[in-house]
Amino acid sequence: MDFSYSEEQTLLRNSLSRYLADNYSFAAWRKFTRGEEGRDPKHWAAFAELGLFAAALPEAHGGFGGGALETAIIMEEFGRRLVIENFVPTAVIAPALLADGSDAQKSEWLAKIATGGTCMAFAFAEAQGRYNLADLTTTAKKSGDGYALNGKKVAVIGAPFADTLIVTARTGGGQRDHEGVGVFLLDAKTPGITIRGYRTIDSGRAADILLENVAAPVERRIGGEALAAIERAVDAAIAAHCAEAVGAMRVLVDATVAYAKTRQQFGQPIGKFQVLQHRMVDMAIAREQAVSAALMGALRPDPRSVSAARAVIGNAARSIGQGAIQIHGGMGMTDELDVGHYFKRLTVLELLYGSTDHHLARMTALDAA
User: Fold this and answer.
1) CATH number of 7-118
2) Average pLDDT over residues 56-70
3) Is the whole model's pTM more than 0.90, yes or no?
């Protein structure tokens, strides 16, 4: 089987890699992540010019007709540079949900996404929900010609950056019922929305969001019964973040090997010590397993394959991240060195949309079904 990338895919990777190398240095990243806004908006516009948001969208809506593999290429390069922009909610989750939307909704929103005309955040998590996407106390009740939303969402990644919120809410049924789940696209400045932002461990931004009688016109509801679409969208997001993790792992393994060749201890480079050689070999093997798993997640986006990929990625993220820190020693966790920041990002990715144990249990449940 030929796993070679096409000429167009290689061009996409190379153009993005060059842009990030020239404009998204670690020094610049440290500066803007510590600023009041937490990001540099010029990169969002640049990503739109590079066609990143359009890469996986259908040509009928301004896209380039690509798919999950193009998304994986983009995300791997993002992982190499710790890119914090809201690419996944905007270019992965929203299009997956809009597949169940009306023609008018697709025409409006996919065109905005393709040109970078909107920045989205996915408000799905609730304090009691754990990893159950159907466990919702946020409600969306009929009100006039639309809906009134009430509830609280927690740990909404990228919410302080977003102008549009993708909000899941219960339109009927009990708290954990699979029926009665809806999804809405809300303007972040809609009256009744309170966004309480904070900085995350990986230097990104997230927020808790309070919804108090937030009016949502009927055209802002995407599809009808939405749980199946939400699950597909989350699986697509998991596959994308698997590729991001691979990018971060490549940097960590390479940086650790390079450091071991130069760091002197007992009159010789620490890379000459056999126990550290074994550790770095284990890290390299875990990285290659992660590469294969991420590719499987992109090419076979069914629930079991995605969870299998995510489980492999989760184990590799922990092994490589911890190995890099231990070999670098105390300086591995200093703010001035990028290694610690890659470790923190991998730690977040290890838990995003479900822990490794959660995905192993999901695989078991799918096999038993």
Assistant:
1) 1.10.540.10
2) 94
3) yes
